[in-house]
Structures
1.
Amino acid sequence: MQQILAQNRHEKRKAQNRISQQQFRKRKEQHVKELEDRVKELESQLVDQTKDLKEENTQLKGTIKSMETELHTLRGAERAFRVAIEKLQASGTAISMDTLFPHSPAHSPASGPGHQVHTPNTFRTTSASPYQESAMFDDLPTSMDGSPHKDAASTISSLDYHTSSSSTLGVERLSPKIETMVAANDESRFEHKLDPRILAGEKTLTMEQVWERIQEHPRADDFDFSILCEEFKNMAVCSGTGPVVFEQDFDKAMDNLGENFMSM
């Protein structure tokens, strides 16, 4: 009898152990599955974040390129403007608003030489009280010499800022011949001729794309980058938005490099 009871207790313990092990395995599998799902979720988030960062990086590169192009244009404009003024000063020509802005619509074409033209003063306030000149204009003369042979510095320093209700700025008009000459000089400095291969639609590579392709080359570690940079610098042409290299020229240069390594 005791043997039968002992055997029953042993069977019960075995059954309980089996149930406990089954529950443990079930909890373990569930926990592993939750961890795997979490890993997949994190990987998906990482892919999305990486994609967003790449897109943002591309947009920033495009912005930098457009800003560099704009900066280059502004520098060219500043140089052209400065050279034009220096030439006028050297020739003893009086500088006026007509000389600096020959196409300004504020001047009437019917105005003859020596005729004084009034334009609205951009410094006029909108209040009803009369305009009060600021201290920065206190040292300026209150009259303007009409002599056409006055040098540029004298003419500029003699601008008359009126304090009447109309508040106009007196400017001296030059002959149409000088205006045309200055305008032609300035416009010729902004002529931008693209390479005929660009206009023909030939495929090009930006400097970033050139660098990426060089890095992908199996012998990239053996390249002399100073020679490479000089070679691609000579190949580069202006596309209107930045320097580029024609893909055909790039491939030819890389093929030549590969042949040189093979012969070594």
2.
Amino acid sequence: MNWSSSKSFITRALPFAATFVVAVFVTSLFVDLNGPRMRGFHGKRHQEMMRLRMENQELRKENFRLQEQLDIQQMGHRDKHPGDEIRLQELNELPPVPVVPRAKR
């Protein structure tokens, strides 16, 4: 490349670059140039997953309790084990699972 072609390139590129820098500066006065914040989205998704896990755990406990009741009904009184009623009472006496608090903004 010779001197005249690089000089013409600089004379064309310099005003464009200067205009671009000024435009970004002016834009930064009015708009936050950082990327979008996804904290709210991820927090909501995490909260939803925790809620679903707790609900799944409650359903497993209920399923176990119902299966135990069904087993006891099918066995009848002749094949009962002495601790069956106690196990069912213990399951019914479990405290309810606490609700996950909502995140505050």
3.
Amino acid sequence: MFMESDWQHTERRINILLLSYWEDLRGDREMPNEDDLEPDKLGFLWQNCFLIQVRDIAQGRDYNFTYLGERIIQAYREGMLSEHNKAIISPHASHMSEHYEKVLSTRRPVVQDGQFTSPDGGLIRYRQSFLPLANAEGEIDAIFGGMCFTYE
């Protein structure tokens, strides 16, 4: 069973931590559902997480944040992350639709890491993950994920 105390001092990579949590929630099902999420079990990591609702509409899919962790929000407040940089999560969920579509088509987690130059010229390295959540009918209706970053 996933316990914060088991990993908080041994593993630092958000992708591995969240995938382990997702696998634990999943059990013998194809994927967990949104109701399975327990932010308290994630402890400090919850600040780096996000939750996106997936909606089918007549013209295609729509993606909206229903939760955005405090560390991500703070990074935007401090100007460290630019909503114009398409490499990372933005306050506007739709710009990452290529990653969401991959989660929806494969029905599997997607992980990404990389780096970019911030608006003030500093180097930002990041890791993020996108983990599918299904409703009772097995349709993906949400994407749970997280990101972490370092500024150099």
